[in-house]
Amino acid sequence: MQQPRRIVIVGGGTAGWMAAAAFGRFLTPHYEVTLVESDAIGTVGVGEATIPQIQLFNNALGINEPDFIKATAGSFKLGIVFDGWWRPGHRYIHAFGTVGRGQGLIGFHHYWLRYRQNGGAHDFWRYSANAQAAFANRFGLGVPDAGVAIPYAFHFDASLYAAYLRRYAEARGVQRIEGRIDAVSRHGETGDILNLSLEGGRTVAGDLFVDCSGFRSLLLGEALGVGFDDWSNWLPCDRALAVPCASAEPFTPTPRRAFARPAGSGAFRCSTAPATAMSIAARWYPMTKRRTPCSPISMARRSPSRGRCGLRQASAAKCGAATVWRSGWRAASWSRWSRPASI
Ligand SMILES: Cc1cc2nc3c(=O)[nH]c(=O)nc-3n(C[C@H](O)[C@H](O)[C@H](O)COP(=O)(O)OP(=O)(O)OC[C@H]3O[C@@H](n4cnc5c(N)ncnc54)[C@H](O)[C@@H]3O)c2cc1C
């Protein structure tokens, strides 16, 4: 089988530049990697709240963490706090990392359940280093060489992350083409994608195409007809309002945010990501930045005006146009061509 030699990535949001950076790291110069994006269409580019697995990706690229934090206006994150999701006043923390220590093949939660049945009063999260660090407003990088590490993730600006990865990818030979894709040409017999037609008449040919065009799903959904599995029945939020605050709140010793100054390492911020439920919406602070705007986000189901109203009450901020989506996923992540059902 002929090896694909030319890889074309469609889209330059977080997904596109992550793919480009990975290909630039591992595949160039053996493969020719091109990314096509349209400045006119733009990206989602909100604040990104990540989970610790992002470190696997960054480490695979050999990214220097302090550089990355600085370049993306990032902060460290020990977990996610859910305020008022079960009932008003209720708070749940999803702290990263393990909780307690099991014995042999028996997980810690079995011991804790028995302890509670016997009248023990301690909360489960008492046994989580991350939760305790967050509640105590503490953070540290641990001593990885000695096997002591606190699992953490980051909040960062998705646009800055994409820009950072763009620099990384272009330095490793990835070519960027700016332009709006107007048409996708496919082989008459196999159905394989052959090339992309850009406005102005330029075409971009490739052997392997990676669709990172976001909600639109230009190649997988539109060109190849891969169906969408709609989950909106179970995940009813269908729009978001990203609102820059006039100013960020000061960092306070609460589980929502923590601020730490470890000796010798300068000042850095660490936080949990608070997701606050409202009557028909949720606020989400994926990123906090000192002295710069942060981004509370409201998600509301089919009632944008009430969602805006709730957000305004919560943040006293002006809301722009909503990002609207359908929750779900593509029926397939990879498709060589859309085979008619009759074959
Ligand atoms: C409010 C909100 C909060 C979120 N919070 C989080 C979070 O906390 N953590 C998390 O992991 N994710 C979060 N997400 C999801 C995440 O931000 C998005 O999934 C991600 O940014 C989308 O990136 P993308 O690269 O897939 O698509 P996009 O950013 O939409 O990029 C699509 C790219 O395709 C290009 N494109 C599209 N059509 C064409 C065309 N015809 N021709 C040329 N180029 C084209 C565009 O120019 C763009 O470069 C959030 C999303 C929203 C809306």
Summarize the structure.
The chain has 343 residues and is α+β, with helices and mostly antiparallel strands. It has eight helices and 19 strands. Bound molecules: flavin-adenine dinucleotide.
- Overall average residue pLDDT: 79
**Taking Cα atoms only, what radius of gyration do you get, to the nearest Å?**
23 Å
Enumerate the spans where pLDDT stays under 50 for 5 or more consecutive residues: 251-270, 285-304
The biggest sheet amounts to: 10 strands, mixed
Strand coverage percent: 25-35%
- Percentage of helical residues? 10-25%
The total of beta strands comes to 19
Alpha carbon gap, first and last residue: 23 Å
What is the string of helix and strand elements? EHEEHHEEHHEHEEEEEHEEEEEEHEE
Number of helices: 8
Query: What small molecules does this complex bind?
Result: flavin-adenine dinucleotide
Shape: elongated
Structural class: alpha+beta
Would you give an account of this structure?
- With 343 residues, this protein is α+β, with helices and mostly antiparallel strands.
- 22% of the residues lie in helices and 26% in strands.
- It is built from eight helices and 19 strands.
- It has helices spanning 14-26, 54-61, 65-71, 108-117, 129-135, 158-171, 218-223, 304-315; strands at residues 6-10, 32-37, 47-49, 75-83, 91-95, 153-157, 175-178, 181-186, 193-198, 203-205, 208-211, 228-230, 239-242, 257-260, 268-277, 281-284, 297-300, 323-324, 328-330.
- The strands form four sheets. Strands 3, 4, 5, 6, 13, 14, 15, 16, 17 and 18 form a ten-stranded mixed β-sheet that branches. Strands 7-2-1-11 form a four-stranded parallel β-sheet. Strands 8-9-10 form a three-stranded antiparallel β-sheet, with no helix packed on it.
- A hairpin with a 7-residue loop joins strand 4 and strand 5 (91-95).
- Helix 1 runs parallel beside helix 6 (158-171).
- The longest helix has 14 residues, at 158-171.
- It is elongated, with a radius of gyration of 23 Å.
- The model is unreliable at 251-270 and 285-304 (pLDDT under 50).
- The structure holds flavin-adenine dinucleotide (FAD).
